[in-house]
Design a protein that fits this description.
With 100 residues, the protein is mainly α. Helix content is 39%, strand content 4%. It is built from 3 helices and 2 strands; from the N terminus they run αββαα. It has a two-stranded antiparallel ribbon with strand order 1-2.
Length: 100
């Protein structure tokens, strides 16, 4: 019995420590938000908006078959370049050593 208690006590402390703010000794109000967010982004949009170029519900694969045909004959559509908003470029300097 004491060996089970010895194994469970550290686990209970670790679980409790993640949810409690050490400064106020109260539970973090954002605790569990990651799970709620992940569930929300996996929810199906009940009223999706489709453009004329998108596959529509009930399509039978004609657009996919046409794309495969273009690919096999070498007549693929040109890639459409898109810009991004915001910016900043990141990078890090290499810390390698030169010839020795």
């Amino acid at each position: 019995m004491s060996s089970k208690l010895t194994l469970l006590a550290p686990a209970a402390l670790l679980i409790g420590a993640c949810a409690v703010d050490p400064a106020t000794q109260s539970f973090d109000p954002g605790f569990g938000e990651a799970q709620k967010y992940n569930m929300a982004i996996q929810t199906i949009d009940p009223d999706p908006v489709y453009t004329a170029e998108d596959a529509q519900p009930g399509d039978n694969g004609d657009k996919g078959a046409a794309a495969v045909k273009r690919y096999r004959t070498g007549n693929v559509k040109a890639v459409e370049m898109m810009g991004t908003t915001g910016g900043g470029s990141g990078g890090s300097g290499g810390g390698g050593s030169g010839p020795q």
